[in-house]
Design a protein that fits this description.
Layout (H helix, E strand, L loop, with lengths): L3 E2 L13 H10 L4 E3 L9 H11 L2 E3 L1 E8 L2 E8 L6 H27 L6 H5 L9 H10 L6 H9 L14 H10 L3 E4 L8 H7 L6 E6 L4 H14 L2 E5 L19 H15 L1 E2 L6 E2 L2
Parallel strand pairs: 1-2, 2-3, 6-7, 7-8
Antiparallel strand pairs: 4-5, 5-6, 9-10
The structure holds adenosine monophosphate, zinc ion and fe (iii) ion (FE) (2 copies).
One fe (iii) ion binds next to loops.
Length: 287
């Protein structure tokens, strides 16, 4: 049976495997295809698209956008959008600016708390796209201030902790609108992680196209709740491992996946807008 992992990260956000390594791993894990869903960036696709083609893997566009709803952090997956979409590219750019001011503010706060780290040390990690808290956590670990990344979040970087800086708000609606403008599908990521049921209820009323029901090591009973909700709404029911490489060692690539019929819906949409000659902008995309 063909399996497709629709949620994974590379070194273009906070994953530790390069796009090349992720694709190689996908091949070794006998996945038929995947979507790379880096946080707030699509920069991995430039190398990933031609490489996937060479490896005989089906790759569709993907991204995991950070958003805020009623003061709560929400992750939204976008799939099958046109990689050249202005709306998507503009939103990624907005996130890039937001992330830079945020990590600088957090470095300042960490330094004030007697655990000095510098921007140079963060950049020395060689981040390719989005810089986030896991990068700061890695530097804290390297300098011996914490034992591991999890401890860095528990002590300093997690929501409400001493060196946490809330993000500039980019709304859920703005995010859905950008994904739709790019002809993509907007999917609520890992809804089981949302603890506030009121927020969840409101979110489920919004114009999403899908819900991520299959996730990493989530039990069948938990998955079923989201499958039922997705079915009732006539939404896509998606899934993936949320692979991050060694920084989240329990999320193995291919540990969660969707079947051919779901992937085909996403793949057809991606091809409809990505293949061939576009009469509007006149470019020929390579798949
Ligand atoms: P950011 O995008 O900068 O807000 O960082 C959020 C990312 O940090 C999430 O997508 C996770 O990959 C990671 N993360 C969040 N909480 C933790 C935690 N408690 N331990 C380890 N990693 C975490
Ligand atoms: Zn992440
Ligand atoms: Fe997420
Ligand atoms: Fe993720």
């Amino acid at each position: 049976m063909n399996r497709y992992d629709l949620h994974c990260h590379t070194t273009h956000s906070d994953g530790t495997s390069s796009p090349e390594e992720v694709l190689q791993k996908a091949k070794e894990s006998e996945l038929a295809g995947l979507s790379i869903t880096d946080h707030d960036t699509i920069s991995a696709y430039e190398t990933a698209l031609p490489l996937a083609k060479n490896l005989g893997l089906k790759l569709i566009s993907g991204v995991e956008f950070s958003a805020v709803f009623a003061g709560t952090s929400v992750h939204i997956l976008g799939y099958s959008f046109d990689l050249k979409s202005e709306a998507i590219r503009n939103l990624c750019e907005k996130h890039k600016t937001r992330r830079i001011s945020r990590y600088r503010a957090m470095i300042e706060l960490l330094t004030k708390h007697g655990i000095p780290i510098t921007e140079e040390e963060v950049l020395a990690l060689g981040p390719k796209g989005s810089i986030g808290r896991p990068h700061l956590a890695t530097v804290l670990m390297q300098k011996g201030f914490v034992e591991d990344v999890t401890q860095a979040f528990h002590k300093y970087l997690g929501e409400g902790m001493s060196c946490y800086v809330p993000s500039e708000v980019i709304t859920v609606q703005e995010t859905i609108d950008a994904i739709h403008a790019g002809n993509g599908f907007a999917v609520i990521a890992h809804p089981h992680l949302m603890k506030n049921e009121n927020v969840l209820r409101e979110l489920l009323k919004m114009n999403f196209d899908g819900v991520e029901a299959y996730y990493a090591r989530l039990g069948t009973q938990q998955e079923q709740r989201w499958v039922n909700i997705g079915k009732k709404k006539g939404w896509l029911i998606t899934g993936g491992s949320d692979y991050h490489g060694s920084i989240k060692p329990n999320n193995n690539l291919g540990s969660s996946w969707v079947r051919e019929e779901t992937f085909q819906i996403l793949y057809s949409r991606f091809q409809a807008f990505a293949v061939g000659f576009c009469v509007l902008c006149g470019y020929i995309n390579r798949l």
